[in-house]
Amino acid sequence: MNFLTRNKQIILYGLALAVIIILVRWLEISYILADDSVDIYIGVIALLFTGLGVWLAIKLRKPKVETVIVEKEILLTPPVVFVLNENEVKRLNLSRRELEVLQWMAAGLSNQEIADKLFVSLNTIKTHTAQLFEKMEVKRRTQAVDLGKKLGLIP
Amino acid sequence: MNFLTRNKQIILYGLALAVIIILVRWLEISYILADDSVDIYIGVIALLFTGLGVWLAIKLRKPKVETVIVEKEILLTPPVVFVLNENEVKRLNLSRRELEVLQWMAAGLSNQEIADKLFVSLNTIKTHTAQLFEKMEVKRRTQAVDLGKKLGLIP
DNA sequence: TGCAAAATCACCCGAAAGTATGACCGCTGA
DNA sequence: TCAGCGGTCATACTTTCGGGTGATTTTGCA
Questions:
Q1: Which residue in A63, A97, A119, B142 could disulfide with A108, CB within 3.0 to 4.6 Å?
Q2: Ordered per-residue pLDDT tens for chain B, 155 residues
Q3: Which residues 18-77 of chain A have a CB within 8 Å of chain B?
Q4: How far apart are CA A62 and CA A65, in angstroms?
Q5: Whole-model pTM above 0.90?
């Protein structure tokens, strides 16, 4: 069954060949074709079988080449490399120490913990935070952290 | 000039046809071909021109389609659309209210402001935050916000 | 080298945040 | 039906935060 389907073109071609040969033979026997008309005869046969060949080639040649589109998903991870928004730092006139305090604040440290980490007194950190809030125009450390992230001051 | 190049195949085919017809005519004249051998003669011609047809078809038929592999880079932008990390919510056993409070906390609201926004008392918010901190194992709202962002609980 | 800005520290006070505990209500699943 | 949970609220207390003010030292730069 599969054989028939797969070789349908070839079988059809063979049958067509047979039919044409039979036809030609019959014409010949019937004396319809004179000896003189051999040229035309050959021409017709040639054209016929050329057409057949073309058809065969087109049919048999598989559509084959498929366009393969490979969709490659590439996950970009922008947060991996944090770049400080220098412009905002300048605009807000934030000092280095204030920015540092802001970063630790964002990490969830208390003023005391920041003080310990930076080896300064609690009061110093308080001063820094107070200045920071004033410059950033916020009232709470949570607001400062939120705004800081939005402005690209902290990762 | 261009005409010649573009129709080279067709011209070649025509010429081949002419040559073969001349050849056949010559054979006929030379009495090499007897009347009896017409079948074989036709068969040969048929095969010949079928081959020609196939060759023609293959040659003429387009500079076959090339395999095109397109690597499509799809940018995934995670920050654009925030999806809540349900797994973490379940793991930490956070209630809806607690998550809500966390979100407002992350926006920089004070407990009193959150209370006003949710139309509940300050004490209620305090209870929620206390429970939240216990479940998240943190001690401060800033820590909760930081961890919440890392775990995908808040945008 | 001098000066402004930055960094440091201190004290006080009120506000906000966080801790601990107890209580009430409504819903739900065993 | 009853235990458990989520949500609500309250009181009392401690800790931390933030505002205000003032002062000294350090540092970067013109």
A1: B142
A2: 454 554 555 555 556 555 655 665 566 556 555 555 556 666 677 777 777 777 776 666 654 555 555 555 544 444 568 888 888 888 889 999 999 999 999 999 999 999 999 999 999 999 999 999 999 999 999 999 999 999 999 98
A3: 20-21, 24-25, 28, 35, 38-39, 42-43, 45-58, 61, 65-76
A4: 8
A5: no
